[in-house]
From TrEMBL:
Pfam families assigned to the protein according to its UniProt record, in alphabetical order: Lcl_C
Keyword vocabulary terms for this entry: Membrane, Transmembrane, Transmembrane helix
Native source species: Candidatus Falkowbacteria bacterium GW2011_GWE1_38_31
Protein name (Swiss-Prot/TrEMBL): Lcl C-terminal domain-containing protein
Transmembrane regions listed in the UniProt entry: 20-37
Amino acid sequence: MINNKFNLVLKKFMSKKSQFLMAILSIATTMTVTYFISRAGTLNPTMAPGDTMHTLDDIYCRITGCTPTAYGLDSPGAVGATMRSLEDIYDAVDTLASGIDYSLQKNQIWDDWKGSAVATSASLSLAYTATVDQNLEEGTWASTTDTNLTSTTVASGVVKRDERTGLYWSDCYSAAVDGTCDTRTNSFTLNGVVDDADDGLDAEDGQAVDFCEALALDADGDGTDETDWYLPSQKELMQAYINGAANNIPSPASNFWSSTENYGNASSAWYVYLAGGYTYSTTKTVANYARCVRR
């Protein structure tokens, strides 16, 4: 009889203990789940990923300089024209690793009068007869126009940007804004001080150099005149020709002064014929044409 009563009391005690332990376990579980949810943030965001989250398109455009598309939570699943794949990013990084993509320049089989900067997959015969750039070896050039020209001494407000190098190119020097290119001498000296817009041994004085240093021209279409123009170097002019300047910038068929002095003769400097690509050194007092560049 006593044993039965003892067993009954023991069972009641164990039952209450189990209930107590289960209650503590339930409270601990609730607190743990609440903690991790609070750390993870809301499970039902009310807006698309913000600045602290990035899509593949964000990453691709960070590499290439494009403008990413704003995505919502219900963006299409398949990779489309406005979305990016890991393959796209891999190819972009491969190009970025070498700085500038010069790979298509191996296809320079047509001269500038047989090809242009038109992107096409046309056949070689079409490239020959229809003046299209079948091999796409030329760069892409963006264009803006500064229509607010007052005392600016350029033939027009057209500015071309070489997308390969990132350089902005002005139109040629003109004594009046009438669409006519006029010549300048180039009697500069190298002062050896890096304090102007251009890097290296800065060219100072001379009509061509002074024209560019005084130029105020809106390069990017934001309505503000840029004043960091300078007379380009010989290699900058040559690279512009390689990238398709002959088919993209206004009035390329002239000899354009550079700020590169002849290594063996300080009285001479180099010029580049932008319609054909040849370069030659001549006396700085010769009157050639001038156009400016900025980074």
